[in-house]
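subagent[fold] <- orchestrator: predict structure for attached chain, return tokens only, no commentary.
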Amino acid sequence: MFKLIIFDLDGTLLNTIDDLADCTNYVLQNNGYPTHEIDAYKYFVGNGVEQLLRRALPKNITETVFFEVMNQFMHYYEVHKADKTAPYQGMVETLKHLQEKEIQLAIATNKPHELLPDLIQFYFPTIQWAAMFGFRKGTPIKPHPQIVDDILETTHILKTNTLYVGDTAVDMETAQNASIQKVGALWGFRTKQELEQANADYIIEHPKQLIDILFS
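subagent[fold] -> orchestrator:
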């Protein structure tokens, strides 16, 4: 029986792609670099802010310039991270239902840890989170399983009672590396083929299908 569900954030709980793309394109344009279409960002994201920007920026820039642009992005995104972002349809209702069934809920994301409290409180004010971890300096990013291990240590839930939900191969690899079962979310940024190739244990089209996995 599953007692804990760990959710990825971007592309799983929240549709953040417009704000991520807009903020990245803003700093790119502000520095004289080419911008990108929204669909390109669905493949730029998933491995943290640094990799997002390395994929979006020209390859020939210096490290000094790169980190200056990243600093600009972080400041701009802090202000504009919720301009267009919203929970996926049915997500809040599903989380409330799981909470009522005494399933513990947690978040594991490569988004900077310091951005999480305000963002999650704004979008999910009625949800009690057992744990939430983002990228912290000195801690490896997903697909390294450290973030899952930190959640399990906080919640005291066994791996056999834990389910991981995410929308990318990175998420499936994270769960695989942590030896927990994994659910691919088709409402996110990537394709069914990617999730199948990453060996998702379940693939679902709507958040409410989590309830079927847990209670059928």
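orchestrator: received. Logging for downstream: The beta strands are 4-7, 14-15, 86-87, 104-112, 131-135, 162-166, 181-185, 202-204. The mean pLDDT is 96.
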